[in-house]
Amino acid sequence: MTRPEPNSNSPGLNPAAARPSGGSDIIAFRDVGLRYGRGPEILSDVNLSLPQGSFSFLTGPSGAGKSSLLKLCYLALTPSRGHISVFGEVAALLDNRKSQAVRRRIGVVLQDFTLIDHLSVFENVSLPLRVAGQSRAQYTQDVTELLQWVGLGHRMQAFPPTLSGGEKQRAAIARAVIAKPNLLIADEPTGNVDPEIGRRLLRLFAEMNRMGTTVMIATHDIDLIQELDARVLRIEDGRIYKGLNARSDFGEGVS
Ligand SMILES: Nc1ncnc2c1ncn2[C@@H]1O[C@H](COP(=O)(O)OP(=O)(O)OP(=O)(O)O)[C@@H](O)[C@H]1O
């Protein structure tokens, strides 16, 4: 992977989202509703397409349903109604083996990082490549370079419980991108780092996107959103809209 130089100044930070996709949808929601148990419906009639190669930000107030929508995308939740397809496969029809195969094509960064405490940072980040059958000799250079790029070159042998929140976040991001997933889903991926590192991570996501990964990032950070000329989706009152100003651009059937 060609990564941007660590100190480069946002070279051409315009992701593929600004270009016509011409391809098929990686994710498609049709009339999706979601409720937890007997609680209120937190997502209603969501129609959404993520075109192949697109870059989208997902924003909205706290508790609006951003994390829940991301979980639907990586098959950690099933909708209460409606249909979701992922990589052209109807999610509800996937058996366990096929669901796992779909998940292996998705890099996920969660708010609680989900690093494995008894594996070093290097081993955590290597894991997707080991699972894909690569040997240590094949992946050592890539993992080392990526960890250096995200500023964890000196923490490769550390274990997650000894890392700061920002270090854990960067390790989780490195693990999510190392295998060059078809789809990258990140939930507040810059929430624990300072603005300069946040911009560097954004450059990494933009570079992944230029190389073909479809990207969706949930964030509250308006400054981060404004760094890129990317599509913005907003959840409010259970509905999905296009753009930062929810009421001005009603987006049922966002695509
Ligand atoms: N496992 C759960 N069981 C019951 N309710 C849940 C569960 N997870 C989330 N919720 C509720 O669903 C709603 C949406 O939560 P979600 O975490 O998706 O919002 P969010 O937009 O990601 O919030 P934040 O920006 O604060 O992370 C909230 O009202 C939340 O309390």
Mean pLDDT: 88
C-alpha-based Rg, rounded: 18 Å
Compounds present? adenosine-5'-triphosphate
> What is the terminal separation in angstroms?
29 Å
Instruction: Write the H/E string, N to C.
Output: EEEHEEHEHHHEHEHEE
Low-pLDDT runs of 5+ residues are 1-14, 17-22, 248-252
Strands of the biggest beta sheet: in what spatial order?
6-7-8-3-9-10
Largest sheet at a glance?
Answer: 6 strands, mixed
Which percent range describes the beta-strand content?
15-25%
Number of helices: 7
Estimated structural class: alpha/beta
- Fraction of residues in H or I helices: 25-40%
What is the total tally of β strands? 10
Shape: globular
In short:
By secondary structure, the protein is an alpha/beta fold. Helix content is 30%, strand content 23%. The chain has 7 helices and 10 strands.
Report on this model:
This protein is α/β, with parallel strands linked by helices and 255 residues long. 30% of the residues lie in helices and 23% in strands. It contains 7 helices and 10 strands. It has helices at residues 66-73, 96-104, 121-131, 136-149, 165-177, 195-210, 222-226; strands at 25-35, 41-51, 55-59, 81-86, 89-90, 106-109, 183-187, 214-218, 231-236, 239-242. The protein is globular. Mean pLDDT is 88; it is low at 1-14, 17-22 and 248-252. Adenosine-5'-triphosphate is lined by residues 36, 39, 42, 60, 62-68.
